[in-house]
């Protein structure tokens, strides 16, 4: 009798990456829920923290959401006072999205809990393995971008 576990192919890397993404997003949603935001909104805020003053299209790309959904996301964040929009001085037709002081304060409150979540994700890896994991993910992203 064959051992069916031994003959099964391992899950694809794409499947495994999606599993990690979904569990991270679930944990991040729970983590930021008390602040009244979602993991997607948190991601957009962190993108603005690194690159303030983005157009909606740029923010959508960097936040991994569609151009259509970024409008609702930004409207919600703006309503909460976490971001504001202003005209691009170089292109008056374009609105730039900027992080407010309130947005920066919210992000500051979550630095440690998010760092702890990340540490939990890689806790069974050595420091060297965690660095290799980061580099491998970066190379995988670059290969597909």
Q: What is the molecular shape?
A: globular
Indicate the percent of residues in helices. Answer: 55-70%
Strand content: 5-15%
Q: What are the secondary-structure elements, in order, as H or E?
A: HHHHHEEHH
Distance between the termini: 46 Å
Strand line-up across the major sheet: 1-2
Task: Report the sheet with the most strands, covering strand number, pairing sense and barrel closure.
Answer: 2 strands, antiparallel
Task: Compute the number of strand runs.
Answer: 2
Number of helices: 7
Question: How confident is the prediction overall: mean pLDDT?
Answer: 93
Query: In terms of structural class, how would the helical and strand content be classed?
Result: mainly alpha
Low-confidence stretches: none
Specify Rg, calculated over alpha carbons. Answer: 19 Å
Can you give keywords for this protein?
single chain, 145 residues, mainly alpha, two-stranded antiparallel ribbon, 2 strands
Question: How would you explain this protein's 3D organization?
Answer:
The chain has helices at 4-7, 13-32, 39-50, 56-63, 67-79, 101-121, 127-144; strands at 83-88, 91-99. With 145 residues, the protein is mainly alpha-helical. Strands 1-2 form a two-stranded antiparallel ribbon. A hairpin with a 2-residue loop joins strand 1 and strand 2. The protein is globular and about 60 Å long. The mean pLDDT is 93.
């Amino acid at each position: 009798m064959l051992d069916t576990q031994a003959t099964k192919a391992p899950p694809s890397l794409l499947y495994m990456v999606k599993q990690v993404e979904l569990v991270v997003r679930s944990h991040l949603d729970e983590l930021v829920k008390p602040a009244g935001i979602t993991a997607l909104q948190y991601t957009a805020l962190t993108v603005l923290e690194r690159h303030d003053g983005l157009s909606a299209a740029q923010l959508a790309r960097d936040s991994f959401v569609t151009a259509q959904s970024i409008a609702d996301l930004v409207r919600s964040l703006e309503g909460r006072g976490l971001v504001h929009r202003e005209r691009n001085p170089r292109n008056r037709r374009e609105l730039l999205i900027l992080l407010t002081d309130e947005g920066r304060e919210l992000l500051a409150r979550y630095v440690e809990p998010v760092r702890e979540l990340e540490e939990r994700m890689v806790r069974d890896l050595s420091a060297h393995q965690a660095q290799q994991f980061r580099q491998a993910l970066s190379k995988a992203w670059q290969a597909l971008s």
